[in-house]
Design a protein that fits this description.
7-stranded parallel β-sheet; alpha/beta; Rossmann fold; binds oxalic acid; 5-stranded parallel β-sheet; binds NADPH dihydro-nicotinamide-adenine-dinucleotide phosphate; 2 domains; about 30% helix
Length: about 325
């Protein structure tokens, strides 16, 4: 099989899942593993990467398209020797749906007081807590891209009042939207803030003490809740800990962290009002990822434009 159509796989995912998915993908095309240091990648045209090897681009100088193994591309854009070729991010129904499930689950968990009831269960306490309705809460979604828009739609189905914020204003039926200039007004209305932003120079550290202080106090939950599944680099964790301890925030759900994996002595683990998941809000389904890559390679080889190409200027 010619190595000129080869696709390099450099995914720091569960090996068994990658192997199983490769059994159904890239028929007629040579598949090369970057983890095999003996492998000659010099003629490969495509690479599918998640946290790739540092010298990948030196070993594979003829790449034409780089595919991110996930929706986020911060792990790619900071790579040394990154070639000037299109970077395609992963956009797929499976990824979108999983994220919306996680977002709805977290919003409902705070609405229905899951952290408090879990504590009561551990302490064998039978006490009913007050119960607002979803419609009494405004959920503010920061980032109205593929994931933010689907989450917003599904939160609305559950009855939440939903507002959204993005760099450029969006028109979304039933959702009041704000652009970059409307941030303060947007925050002042949110009882639950959901972060679904990419990590860029502009969004690094955006969730800080000043931002938490602008969220609505005294809503149906009493205190605002912060939920983040975008990137940990967007949250200032020392500010977040302080906000949770001082009651500026009533709770949080965190899937992403400044440093991952979260160290075993991190303060968040033992905060009763914080729900933690290990960067698992929406893991890439590897079979769906490879089918998406196959579709894009077919477009590229047919002379059609690639889809979901990253804008290097904005960084997402
Ligand atoms: P998109 O590129 O489709 O959407 C990004 C959104 O963020 C857009 O609405 C964009 O605004 C907005 N945005 C970007 N920068 C700014 C800014 N400076 N100010 C205001 N708004 C901004 O991305 P996706 O929805 O597909 O994914 C979002 C992120 O979710 C990923 O980048 C990744 O980091 C994270 N993710 C996390 C996962 C997990 O398991 N935890 C899984 C998958 C993704 P505009 O519309 O105006 O361009
Ligand atoms: C992604 C992720 O960006 O899983 O897809 O974080």
């Amino acid at each position: 099989m010619s190595s000129e159509n080869a696709v390099v796989i450099d995914l720091k995912f569960e090996r068994r899942e990658v192997d199983a998915a490769l059994g159904h993908a890239f028929a007629g095309r040579q598949v090369l593993r970057a983890s095999d240091r003996e492998q000659d990648l010099s003629q490969a045209r495509y690479a599918v990467v998640w946290k790739p090897e540092a010298d990948l681009f030196k070993r594979a100088p003829k790449l034409e398209v780089l595919f991110s193994g996930g929706a986020g591309v911060d792990h790619v854009l900071t790579l040394p020797d990154l070639p000037d070729i299109p970077i395609v991010r992963f956009v797929d129904h499976s990824l979108t749906t999983r994220m919306s499930e996680w977002v709805v689950l977290q919003c409902l968990s705070h609405l229905r007081q899951v952290p408090a009831y879990s504590r009561q269960q551990r302490e064998h306490v039978w006490r009913e807590l007050s119960q607002p309705e979803a419609k009494e809460l405004t959920v503010g979604v920061m980032g109205l891209g593929v994931l933010g828009q689907d989450s917003a739609a599904k939160l609305k189905v559950m009855g939440f009042d939903v507002i959204g914020w993005s760099r450029r204003k969006k028109e979304i039926e039933g959702v009041e939207t704000f652009d970059a200039n409307g941030l303060d007004e947007f925050l002042s209305r949110a009882d639950i803030l959901v972060g679904l932003l990419p990590l860029t120079e502009e969004t690094r550290g955006i969730f800080d003490a000043s931002l938490f202080g602008k969220l609505r106090q005294g809503g149906a939950l009493g205190k605002p809740v912060f939920i983040n599944a975008g990137r940990g680099g967007s949250q200032v964790e020392k500010d977040l800990v302080t906000a949770l301890r001082t009651g500026v925030l009533g709770g949080a759900s965190l899937d992403v962290f400044e440093a991952e994996p979260l160290s075993s002595d991190n303060l968040f683990w033992d905060m009763g009002n914080v729900i933690i998941t290990p960067h698992a809000a929406s893991a890439s389904d590897v079979r769906a990822l490879f089918h998406h890559v196959e579709r894009q390679i077919a477009r590229h080889e047919a002379g059609e434009p690639l889809q979901h190409v990253v804008d290097r200027q904005t960084g997402y």
